[in-house]
Sequence to fold (448 residues):
Amino acid sequence: MNQQRTISGFSKLSKRGKIKWIVQNFFKDPEVVAKELKSYWLNNEAQQKIIDGFSENTISNFYLPYGVAPNFLINDETYVIPMVTEESSVVAAVSKAAKFWMSRGGFKAEILGTKKVGQLHFSWNGDVEKLKQVFKELTTKLKADAQNITANMDKRGGGIQEIELVDFTETEPNYYQLRCNFETCDSMGANFINSCLESFGQTLTQFIANHPIFSAAEKDVLVIMAILSNYTPECVVRASVECPIDQLGQFGEIDAETFALKFYKAIRIAEIDPYRAATHNKGIFNGIDAVVLATGNDFRAVEAGGHTYAAKDGQYRSLSHCSIENGIFKFWLDVPLALGTVGGLTSLHPVAKRSLELLGSPSAANLMEIIGVTGLAQNFAAVRSLVTTGIQKGHMKMHLINILNQLEASEKEMKEAVVYFKDKVVSFSAVREFINSYRLSVVGFERN
Ligand code: MEV
Fold:
């Protein structure tokens, strides 16, 4: 193969042209691969065009399963929650947790705040006391100059809220920032916030250059950058469940009291040990990310904010907490979620639109509640398995099915394998061995 590994003008090639170049230079069987990549294109050209519009240099679609978790009772409303995830057991686990809590009063969710954050970072060598003196005048000007951007958001009850001057000069010479809060209503608000901040950059520069309080030597501001922060400690939802310990029921050989104690200890461990906290919170995001994706929201933003929040007191800790007091078991999760239910992908992606419809066209705050609860449900299910049967039992069953699919097992072979592996360790080689010998025995049987 005469490989050409670099190219200029790739983005200008047609989709077929891109595939041609890729398969000819990177695959042993170009025609087969080209056909396969094209086989994942949508038949509906208009829909394919919409999907292609989300990104650049698209050559195919990458499919992930779209599942639903029924039986969620949240603040006395029932929901079926859409989830997009490639990880087996996640949807089954939340569904099980939803059913468990359905008969124990369901989940509660409460919005602790909806403020989003943006920052204008700048370098300035001036007298900060003078800037503080005229800061009120500056904030009025910042808001007035951004009015063309904020008019619609103001009408919807949102807009620019507090603007604070943060002085970092002790750690970085001349470095300040305007840290600003925004209310973005039902939109995630990234574009809105960034546009406001860029406008702030211009206003600040002009304000300092023209204000008589500053000397000639203080007139120059160097705007470093204007960008939202994905850390939103005041855009937080609390999801919770609680019930008397004796209503928790029996978990195999484990009684309710022992279960509650083991569960409580498991959460304490995640509160005090970052190694465990990372895995524990990953489990929470198994649930959260799946709904964030299904509703066309930005899961990287949500993850970044969640993990930063988990470290807000200087040590990375569990996002969920548990208490046992006066015979009552309580389990809750506080998590920042910067979400939108209008604009962006939420209204462009055809399946994301259906997800929101399935959820009853929620407001962004309502979606925070639903997603926070899904995170809590996932965490409950994972920790319940860990402190009772162990995690492998459920995982291995799904793992087995995945391996069997990979080996193109027939339905009969699947059934036989599930019975055979009930009390055995599942590994790719063990399953392959089982299938090979099963196929041989069937052939032998048919011959005889
Ligand atoms: C696996 O994806 C997630 C878990 O590891 C979470 C946890 O340990 O709590 C099961």
